[in-house]
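Q: Could you predict the 3D structure of Stage 0 sporulation protein A homolog?
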Amino acid sequence: MSQSSQYLLIVDDNVGVCRLLFELFSDEGYIVETALSGAEALRIVCGRTPSLILLDVKMPGMSGLETLDKIKEIVPDIPVVMMTAYTELDTIMAAQKDGLIQHYLGKPFDLDDIRRLVKKILLDRECEQKVTG
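A: Sure. Here are the predicted C-alpha cells for Stage 0 sporulation protein A homolog:
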C-alpha cells in the first residue's frame, strides 16, 4: 500500500503540534486529518477509519486514554501512537503494561523518530494483513 493511500489522524489540543505533524506527513505523501479534541476525533473515526492515529495523552475534556478507549470500541485493531510529555510517562508505562497501548512518543519528539515509527507501524500492519489475508 502506498503512502498516498495511508490515512493518518492526528489528535492534539495544541494547534501547533497538529500543524507541524500535518505538514510533516502531508509532505511525505500521506492523507492527513487533524482533531483538536477527543470528541472531534471520535466523530472523524466514526465516519472514516484512519490507517493510524497519533493521539496526545493530556487534553482538556476527554483525555487521550479515554479517547483511545472509545476509539478501540469502534475500531479495536487500529494502531495508535500516544504522544506524551515526559511528566506523563508513568501513566503511559502503566497503560502499556496493561496492554492498552503498544506505541508512545515523548514530547518534544524528534521528527525523524516519529516519521520512522509511523512508517514501521504501517509497514508491519500491511505485512500482517497480507499474511492473514
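Q: Anything worth pointing out?
A: The CA atoms of residues 49 and 75 lie 8 Å apart.
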